[in-house]
């Protein structure tokens, strides 16, 4: 939202175009729409008896510079008596001339432009100052106010490339798609499907366990971990947060050193890795089970469920449209970033599979299930470098399955056909990357070489990420001030229509509270000329924002009683003081009672 001006005007208000000030007096043609005041030629019909009238002297003496004033030209000549009439000269009383005031005003505007250049074009108005239109007497107008930053904090203006011009009503709040996404995640986090049979009420420090996934396949043996691995959502009694519990059935601890890798994984906090919190063994499920606790990402899916399900594959083959290369490169960059962090820490993912890569947002992927094979297949004899080479091979197979879903892993002829298809359907850079990951190099593969091959695409991903961050920050700016409006409404709710206070049943109807009653009607109970209610959310938000900034706002509004017998013209700052005074009176009385 655009910030309101110094008058607290409506949000998204734009300043009216100001005409340039012409200090010299010119005759304005009768057909000109700017001729609001009388010109010299317009009074040419006055008789000579009017010349004997006393000279008008304004109460506030102002001087006009006569050095640059020229006699106006008139289309209709005046009477001959005007030739001997003395010209009107306002008395000089030490006040600066309009030319001097205008020169000082231009200098101050230039200085403020040097100090605050970002104000230009942002919709800041100049207050109550009016400038004369061409042909009007400049001395009859007050000098224009100066531009300045608002002295209160309200909505900031959006970035020009995010939203330009006047904003619609829905821009006061977050977009509908973001709201639906957040609501969907909240529902997935706190949904309670009921009590499930065979699930304990509490495991370790976790309670309210809810099974996730398809109940029919929960007990199936995992193709990656080679153990049945049902997944649960549970809340922690330690911090109250919701976590994901992956249970591995039938696990027997073979060595105490098997949990050493868990501590290393706990220290890795990465944007593309589902964080591992802790691991423990338990008999709460009436067997020997190991439970791995991960961060919970609600309403997420996997790459296999999103792109490699039979319906999605059939649709791509029917339409002949592969997965967009922009999405594939986004996945490649994020997964390569995660592998770089893991390999640098001296670990290996060991579970990089389409079923173990979560899509937690728009093109946002995270590797899930890290650390499980380090505990299940604990082996100190196998070097970690070998597992890292397997990570790169699995990485190549994952990208190949996205680009060419018909390829059978492990078949050289099928891989060659897949590379040929990628070369025809995608760019040469992507083909070279997949060929490097699936080929047989003369030396060990490294994640650094993968990042080098994807170098230019990383910049594209960074640009898209920052652009999306700008959009989210702009959406956040639409919501950041809503709490202030809510607090103002809560204070008004405490005051308005209070039945009794300190034995006075008319407390809310008298004194300053009567002003607040009229103000409530002004905000919420307006009607149209034909008596129909006006339901205008923009009006409510605008007025409440002005009131919240009312400590310094001198803008006036007219409050009329319901019977139209009372009419008050008050400033926003006066209403603000009335609210604070009445609210503090109630709060102090409540504190005294608690004592």
From TrEMBL:
It holds the Pfam family Pan3_CK. It is found in: Cytoplasm. Residues 495-595 are annotated as: Knob domain. HAMAP family: PAN3. Residues 61-76, 99-120 have a biased composition (Low complexity). Contains a pseudokinase domain. The protein kinase domain is predicted to be catalytically inactive because some of the residues important for catalytic activity are substituted and it lacks the equivalent of the binding site for a peptide substrate. However, it has retained an ATP-binding site and ATP-binding is required for mRNA degradation, stimulating the activity of the PAN2 nuclease in vitro. The N-terminal zinc finger binds to poly(A) RNA. GO terms for biological process: mRNA processing; nuclear-transcribed mRNA poly(A) tail shortening. Keywords: ATP-binding, Coiled coil, Cytoplasm, mRNA processing, Nucleotide-binding. PROSITE patterns: PROTEIN_KINASE_DOM. Residues 61-129 are annotated as: Disordered. It comes from Cutaneotrichosporon oleaginosum. GO terms for cellular component: P-body; PAN complex. This is PAN2-PAN3 deadenylation complex subunit PAN3. Homodimer. Forms a heterotrimer with a catalytic subunit PAN2 to form the poly(A)-nuclease (PAN) deadenylation complex. Interacts (via PAM-2 motif) with poly(A)-binding protein PAB1 (via PABC domain), conferring substrate specificity of the enzyme complex. ATP binds at residues 246, 295-302, 355-356. GO terms for molecular function: ATP binding; poly(A) binding; protein kinase activity. SUPFAM superfamilies: Protein kinase-like (PK-like). Residues 456-494 form a coiled coil.
């Amino acid at each position: 939202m655009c910030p309101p001006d110094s008058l607290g005007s409506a949000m998204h208000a734009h300043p009216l175009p100001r005409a340039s000030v012409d200090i010299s007096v010119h005759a304005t043609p009768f057909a000109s729409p700017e001729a609001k005041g009388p010109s010299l030629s317009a009074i040419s019909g006055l008789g000579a008896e009017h010349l004997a009238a006393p000279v008008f002297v304004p109460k506030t003496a102002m001087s006009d510079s006569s050095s640059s004033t020229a006699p106006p030209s008139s289309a209709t000549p005046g009477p001959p008596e005007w030739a001997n009439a003395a010209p009107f000269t306002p008395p000089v009383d030490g006040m600066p001339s309009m030319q001097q005031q205008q020169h000082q005003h231009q200098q101050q505007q230039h200085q403020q432009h040097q100090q605050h250049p970002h104000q230009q074009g942002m919709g800041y108005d100049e207050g109550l100052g009016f400038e004369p239109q061409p042909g009007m007497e400049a001395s009859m107008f007050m000098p224009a106010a100066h531009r300045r930053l608002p002295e209160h904090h309200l909505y900031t203006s959006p970035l020009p490339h995010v939203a330009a011009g006047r904003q619609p009503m829905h821009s006061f709040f977050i977009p509908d798609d973001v709201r639906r996404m957040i609501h969907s995640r909240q529902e997935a986090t706190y949904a309670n499907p009921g009590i499930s049979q065979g699930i304990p009420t509490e495991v370790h420090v976790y309670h309210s366990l809810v099974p996730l996934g398809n109940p029919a396949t929960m007990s199936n043996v995992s193709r990656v971990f080679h153990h049945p691995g049902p997944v649960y959502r549970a809340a922690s009694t330690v911090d109250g947060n919701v976590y994901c519990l992956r249970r591995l059935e039938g696990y027997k601890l073979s060595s105490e050193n098997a949990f050493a890798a868990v501590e290393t994984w706990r220290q890795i906090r990465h944007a593309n890795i589902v964080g591992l919190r802790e691991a423990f063994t338990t008999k709460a499920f009436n067997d020997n089970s190991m439970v791995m606790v991960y961060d919970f990402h609600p309403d997420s899916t996997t790459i296999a469920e999103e792109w490699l399900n039979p319906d999605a594959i059939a649709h791509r083959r029917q339409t002949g449209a592969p997965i967009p290369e922009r999405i594939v490169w986004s996945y490649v960059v994020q997964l390569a970033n995660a592998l770089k962090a893991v390999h640098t820490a001296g670990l290996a993912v060991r579970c990089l599979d389409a079923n173990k890569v979560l899509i937690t947002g728009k093109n946002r992927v995270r590797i899930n299930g890290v650390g499980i094979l380090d505990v299940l297949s604990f082996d100190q004899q196998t070097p970690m470098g070998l597992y890292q080479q397997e990570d790169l091979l699995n990485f190549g197979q994952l990208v190949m399955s996205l680009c060419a879903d018909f390829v059978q892993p492990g078949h050289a002829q099928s891989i060659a056909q897949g590379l040929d298809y990628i070369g025809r359907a995608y760019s040469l850079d992507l083909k070279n990357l997949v060929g490097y990951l699936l080929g047989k190099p003369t030396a060990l593969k490294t994640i650094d070489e993968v990042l080098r091959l994807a170098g230019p695409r990383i910049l594209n991903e960074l640009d898209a990420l920052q652009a999306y961050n700008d959009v989210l920050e702009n959406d956040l700016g639409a919501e950041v001030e809503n709490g202030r409006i809510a607090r103002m409404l809560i204070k008004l709710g405490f005051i308005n229509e209070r039945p009794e206070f300190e034995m006075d049943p008319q407390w809310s109807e008298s004194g300053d509270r009567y002003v607040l009653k009229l103000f409530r009607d002004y905000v919420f109970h307006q009607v149209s000329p034909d008596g129909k209610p006006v339901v205008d959310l923009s009006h409510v938000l605008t007025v409440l924002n002005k009131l919240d900034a009312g400590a310094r706002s001198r803008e006036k509004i007219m409050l009329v009683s319901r019977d139209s017998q009372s009419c008050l013209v008050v400033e926003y700052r006066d209403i603000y003081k009335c609210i604070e005074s009445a609210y503090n009176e109630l709060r102090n009385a409540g504190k005294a009672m608690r004592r």
